[in-house]
Specification:
Radius of gyration: 20 Å
Oligomer: single chain
Number of domains: 2
Structural class: alpha/beta
Bound molecules: uridine-5'-diphosphate-4-deoxy-4-fluoro-alpha-D-galactose
Length: 356
């Protein structure tokens, strides 16, 4: 069994990966600055797994603090999730994204070198393919950044690859996620974006919970079967299991490996919306709006390499993703209401109507 440090370990994908790693008997230590994660996550991980994970409250940009975490830890590998991930924010504040994502990764890699840790699994994104020319997208497709967030992912991939090439690192997996959604089936952990959600599933959940009036579908005139954008939605627990496979394979291999993580199937915005309605029994109010600038019509993975290298394929369905996202959303809405009103109330469905 391996001992693994998870930067950003209290975040959406980090926390689910912690559950999956603990379930496979690995030792897990979390490092997080809690800038975009709830302080309740470590306790919730204990509720789910029965394991009390050590947690370091630390910013990856603080190299000395990261050295202190890594030096005493005897880690076999690092899984590096800690990063900012909002496309619009990255265009509004590029320096922040270069600082947290690029300088933060440089700082982490410096600390890893100091501690003699040579294996990293990196949280990359399908954003590195920019506006893809063909779907499904294989790892050999051209790489291209269309925004600052994507640029930082490409720079981080290059930095890590160069360190493997020059021998400072032995092994790197660059995991290119497509569209992670869903939540742990317990409903205890999930995605909790601050402010107005930029992504489809959290927005849909907030409409269903009555926190927002209506979903705007960004365009219905794309060259796709129903005219709305097509994406490769992936259950976060499937994604978490892919990280377990990557870290286990990394322990016995060398070199840099970029691997797509997706189901290989594309669904449209309306497919997701109607599956969500069937999974939850709620009718979701929506309207068709203009296209969102920068959106590709279709984006879905060729997941062949993930199966060949990691022995991993996604198992959960779009229905599972909707059901688990809603379970998490409704439990957290209930908890919020209980906190606000000092009692327990059912979540409001002001925005959504119960289907007959
Ligand atoms: N969409 C809507 N309404 C919304 C939000 C989204 O119709 O309110 C549509 C988008 O136009 C798109 C689809 O839903 O067709 C999915 O949009 P998301 O914002 O959920 O996801 P993206 O595919 O745009 O972005 C994701 C990640 C990014 C990453 C990108 C490319 O969230 O971090 O994939 O890999 F950069």
């Amino acid at each position: 069994m391996a001992r693994i440090l998870l930067t950003g370990g209290a975040g959406f994908i980090g926390s689910h990966t912690a559950v999956a790693l603990l379930g496979r008997g690995h030792d897990v230590v979390l490092a997080d600055n809690f800038s975009n994660a709830s302080r309740s996550v470590p306790a919730r991980l204990k509720d789910i797994t029965g394991v009390d994970c050590p947690v370091h409250e630390v910013d990856i940009r603080n190299t000395q603090a990261m050295q202190a975490v890594l030096a005493g830890g005897a880690f076999d590998a690092v899984i590096h999730f800690a990063a900012l991930k909002a496309v619009g924010e990255s265009e509004a504040n590029p320096l922040l994204y270069f600082d947290v994502n690029v300088a933060g990764t440089l700082s982490l890699l410096t600390a890893m070198r100091h501690a003699g840790i040579g294996r990293i699994v990196f949280s990359s994104s399908a954003t590195v393919y920019g506006a893809p020319e063909h779907c499904p997208i294989a790892e050999a497709a051209p790489l291209h950044a269309t925004n600052i967030y994507g640029r930082t992912k490409l720079i981080m991939e290059d930095m890590i690859g160069d360190l493997v090439r020059t021998g400072m690192l032995s092994t790197a997996f660059l995991l290119r996620y497509f569209n992670p959604v869903g939540a742990h089936p317990s409903g205890l952990i999930g995605e909790d974006p601050r402010g107005v959600p930029a992504n489809l599933m959290p927005y849909l959940c907030q409409v269903a919970a009555g926190q927002r009036d209506c979903l705007t579908v960004f365009g219905d005139d794309y060259p796709t079967p129903d005219g709305t954008g097509v994406r490769d939605y992936l259950h976060v627990m499937d994604l978490a299991e892919a990280h377990c496979a990557a870290v286990e394979v990394a322990l016995g291999t060398y070199g840099t490996h970029a691997v797509n993580l997706g189901t290989g199937t594309g669904y449209s915005v309306l497919d997701l919306l109607h599956t969500f309605e069937r999974a939850t029994g709620l009718a979701i109010p929506y309207r068709i709006g203009p296209r969102r600038p920068g959106d590709a019509p279709s984006c879905y993975a060729d997941p062949t390499l993930a199966k060949a290298m990691l022995g991993w394929t996604a198992k959960r369905t779009l229905h599972d993703m909707c059901q688990d996202s809603w379970h998490w959303q409704s439990l957290s809405a209930k908890a919020r209401q209980a906190a606000e009103h000092g009692g327990s109330q059912a979540p409001t469905t002001a925005g959504a109507q119960l289907l007959a």
